[in-house]
Amino acid sequence: MKKNIIVGQSGGPTAVINGSLYGVASEGIKNPAVGHVYGMINGIEGFLQGHYMDMEELEQSGELEAVRTTPGSFLGSCRFKLPEDLTSSVYPELFQKFEELEIGAFFYIGGNDSMDTASKLSRYAQSINSDIRFIGVPKTIDNDLVETDHTPGYGSAAKYVASTVREIAIDASVYDNKKSVTIVEIMGRHAGWLTAASVLARKFEGDNPILIYLPEVAFDQDAFIKKVEKALETTPNLVVCISEGINDGKGTFICEYASDVGVDNFGHKMLTGSGKYLENLVKDKLGVKVRSIELNVCQRCSSAHLSRVDLDEAVNAGIYAVQAALAGETGKMITFNRSRSNPYELSYGTADVNIICNAEKAFPGEWITEEGSDIGGEYLEYVLPLIQGCVEVPVKNGLPLFAYRK
Amino acid sequence: MKKNIIVGQSGGPTAVINGSLYGVASEGIKNPAVGHVYGMINGIEGFLQGHYMDMEELEQSGELEAVRTTPGSFLGSCRFKLPEDLTSSVYPELFQKFEELEIGAFFYIGGNDSMDTASKLSRYAQSINSDIRFIGVPKTIDNDLVETDHTPGYGSAAKYVASTVREIAIDASVYDNKKSVTIVEIMGRHAGWLTAASVLARKFEGDNPILIYLPEVAFDQDAFIKKVEKALETTPNLVVCISEGINDGKGTFICEYASDVGVDNFGHKMLTGSGKYLENLVKDKLGVKVRSIELNVCQRCSSAHLSRVDLDEAVNAGIYAVQAALAGETGKMITFNRSRSNPYELSYGTADVNIICNAEKAFPGEWITEEGSDIGGEYLEYVLPLIQGCVEVPVKNGLPLFAYRK
To answer: At a CB cut-off of 8 Å and minimum separation 6, what does B392 contact?
Structure first.
């Protein structure tokens, strides 16, 4: 008898996480070895409460195609950590539900925390000799998953950051007869991948952003002020890009110098205001006009800066996940293997999800310049293929047409 | 003998202010009645210091076409207020420079403050019997100039706001099993035109943003909290849009309840943080998860959300300005006259710049719903034609290619 499959989304949204959903659903619907395709509403947390939907209805109504180019998590998301203790009653409860729906394979689209879910479920399955297969589909604008060249979501977010910083620099330069500093704060708690993409904003050598700071380098406030002062001599409208997670290298985030911060469900420190803190610091020390800009959530969910390469790869990751499960794989995450950058060549594979969920891939030190405030090395070669191509998002009444759950 | 013309940009940038520059320059270069076309660097302020360029060089190098789709002020801008006293020495100084360059017509692309410059120069010209013609070309995302149906820059900014709020609402909804409030702060000190455009973000009736607050309506903090509480009952992930300039109706901005603010060159109060203030207020009163997002400067300079109608009209305003000057007009601003909305029909005209520089066009009260927290009436009919059509911005290496001064 053919088994059904179920797919869920977890963690923060990206511009292409629905591309992977589309990939899993369309392949599941099309593949003769698959029965029904279900979608968990609000991930594992919603599913535990009995919330799921039939993905075939979307295909029948013609909406599945719009899901492909809709940013955010169409199925809804959650930040729900399964218990470390595999003897917890939540596991038999979940597997009971899987059995009721005759689930043969489970797909979870997300980042580290979601891979943690896939890891626990696959280990529990092994412990009870269940043959349900658990596959993780990578997704994160942070690009910090190990065992894969990059992750879906990063290319579009990098393109958003590069285009937006380029526009911010133009905006900042209109009064180029007056000195000013613009500090742009970009997402990234521990890994500077997304902030690094701001280097692409330069229209020519020596253009803004002049200074770029990642969490991977200990941030020295005095050295920063000296560099800003020096840079203002040649670039009167200075743009500085920083990761939200810049820190002093001793475990204290720069924003913590200003105020206390809370902790989220997963124990991550909740960050706000490194840019604001530095704005006040520069104003105080140098007395020039300063503003700080926190790039808003659109850096993870803008459909206007979709990279075609990124979206295609997100869709393919979903398709490949279904095929891998059907081939018998479980406890794996789909990975991207790059054989060359120019011309760009990529193949898909799998890696042990247990390795991935407990690690973070930092931005390579050799791609950060010696002074710690610029990006160099082979980063451009690495990132350029990932931001190529535009995606035509359907338009209605002059605005992007997005799919939503009715 | 043929006279030369000079064009400048002033005030904040928009996505299409360079479209008008392109219009003036291309018409000036093409029109046999015009000699050379000069561009003031950093507006009247830079010109006083002797900074200008030859616009024909741009055409010869092929860069003028890229100027058309480049956001921001290609020539640089200024916020320089000419003295009220027309006997000030700055006037003969300027006219001496005009004479040296054999200027026959002067074009200034900007908002109210720029029209103030055009007004003073044309009045001074009259007082000394100079035949130099002074024409203002409208530009402002605020859409607050009188005597014109709308202003270039508004359509693209409205499209940015609508698309971005739609994406923010999607991002906010991914954890739709938890209550949350997202407050989006949109530019607009006195006029709510741009914030009103957030109504376009709704994908269906009853969709976010549920509450929209403009500066035209006195903001009542208690009533606001009650409305938020009520809206959360049916919309767990509530999105609220506010103008930066919301105020209590008695002359105090809401952000001033939190902190003191400064004053810029023109005596405008410098605003920051109405959204942040309300974020804390909601957190304090209702204890739900709240975040505030200040839309960044891209609301005025994003090339990714260019409206084709807006850009075409900006270019046409520049072309029409040159033709109006050649026809003998002076002391005028180019105006847009709409004869119908569906199908959209527009013609160009001129109005006395003296009337325009001292007035602001508020968002019509009849388009604000009775309760003061939503947009209705004929606003949709008004705004929809202005956001139609996409503009293909040239791309290089996956990113928008912008013109810049070498």
So the answer is: none
